[in-house]
Amino acid sequence: MTEQNQGTLEDYLNALDPVYRTESAKDSLKQYNENKTNPKADQTNVYENLGELVGKDPRTFLDQPESGLLLRLKEWQESEKPKVQKAVTKYGGEIFNDYVGIIDRKLQLMVEDFKRENPNPTEDDFKSFEIQLYQVLGKQIRDIPMGTAYGEKNKQVYSLFKQLELIEQLSKGDRKKLKSLVTKSKGLPKMFESAPITDIWADEYLGQSDMMTREIGKAFLKGSNGKYQINAEELRKYTTGKDKDGSDAINVDSYKVMGKNVYSQYVEAMQEAKKKAS
Known about the structure:
- The chain is mostly helical.
- 72% of the residues lie in helices and 5% in strands.
- Strands 1-2 form a two-stranded antiparallel sheet.
- Strand 3 and strand 4 form a beta hairpin.
- Helix 1 crosses helix 3, helix 1 packs across helix 11 and helix 6 runs antiparallel to helix 9.
- The chain is globular, with a radius of gyration of 22 Å.
């Protein structure tokens, strides 16, 4: 935690607690909805997770129908909004700096593992390793909602994000729509949409996802030859939104996700310290 705001670590974590709970509840609800498409899926764990997050008791929703769960969850999320907003506003600087520290530590651990496996790495070894870093960092950044001002600040990387969103939508949607898009992108007439080769082109298009993720990660990585860190300046651009008057401001949704990660890391570290002390 930085010194930007006076207060104790306990104050900081207490403020981030509703951020962690509401963001984790979103993840659990997403899992709940995904499970509904699978008749064999057991929702018990999801109900227990939501019960722990909302009522601080895993049994909170076990005897409730879906309508009761969703209504209670919606009411709870609304009641927590002011606390979440206050936490992000007050501790935005701490959240950002702590999140940067978490990612830098993750990168450092990857470097340590790499050097253990490669005691005398060559320049080519480092280049291959950096591709792994790009992929990991790209996925990490994509988990954070993009700030509404990012398109103005880095149009090239912004374009990659939008293309990835389109690929994900098409991969889950209508195959005919995907084939139509690919056919048009190649300047071919509509009759080619039904050609067997178009299926191959469609799969190749979907296969660009990993490449684009690496390109995103590359934009957010600084360093070389075993010394790496996240590009904090680029992350700040990425998590910038717009205030009501049109001026730059922190993007609250971005900071909520970063805050959730920060909170969980602090809690894990304190739990680990207790284990070592006992």
